[in-house]
Design goal:
Length: 229
């Protein structure tokens, strides 16, 4: 059985109409990252942060999975392949396409988190910092999102999957944000065959064995077809 680890980033969901983000002064839905995606931003202006994520949740709820999401879900469903699907995305489109047991290393818009006790629960469409935690009743509700400066989720599980992988693929991510940017180096050091997918050839580093340049809705289904033929 082939063991495949796939990492997906914002480029996978871009063709479903969801915004991408790039660092270095870039904007994310017209907001600076420092204003909406750091613990300091939440402490400074929780109402602004909640408005931002409420709008992202609304947009994600209206989006539909595209051909890349569906191709990966079909790959995950095969009995002859063990797929570990890791995503930096928080939109839930992999699950909407039918994928199960997706590893959300940056959290999910569909979940809420109590900043006081750590309890998690399904997020309503509209959240506010004043919403009481259903477990401890503290008014410390925040999105269950890994912000810049926080530690991504499930890192041990991801490392274990990379140790066992035969193939690693990075799809629609710039490869600039660590620790995810280091996954390919870890895999390559073990002799794992590495595939890079991006719209821009310059975003696919030389460590990748195979470069797939073009829209994910075209390159990902074509790659999956070669694996399953």
């Amino acid at each position: 059985m082939q063991r495949i680890v796939v990492l997906t980033g914002a480029g996978v969901s871009a063709e479903s109409g969801l915004s991408t983000f790039r660092g270095g002064g870039g904007l994310w839905d017209d907001h600076r990252v420092e204003d909406v995606a750091t613990p300091e931003a939440f402490a400074r202006d929780p109402a602004l942060v909640h408005r931002f994520y409420n709008e992202r949740r609304r947009k994600a709820g209206a989006a539909r999975p595209n051909a890349a999401h569906h191709a990966l879900a079909e790959l995950a469903a095969r009995d002859d392949i063990h797929l570990t699907l890791v995503t930096q995305n928080v939109d839930g489109l992999h699950e909407a396409a039918g994928a199960r047991d997706v590893i959300h290393m940056h959290g999910a818009l569909a979940d809420a988190l109590c900043a006081a006790c750590g309890h998690r629960w399904p997020a309503p469409k509209v959240m506010a910092a004043e919403d009481p935690c259903p477990d401890c009743a503290m008014r410390a509700t925040r999105p269950d999102i890994v912000w810049f400066g926080e530690i991504p989720y499930h890192m041990e599980r991801i490392a274990e999957a990379l140790e066992r992988a035969d193939i690693f693929a990075s799809i629609g991510t710039s490869g600039r944000v660590y620790p995810a940017a280091g996954f390919v180096d870890h895999a390559a050091a073990r002799g794992v065959t590495c595939h890079g997918f991006n719209l821009d050839a310059d975003e696919i580093g030389p460590v990748f064995d195979h470069h797939h340049v073009g829209p994910a809705t075209q390159t990902v289904p074509a790659w999956v077809a070669t694996l399953t033929s």
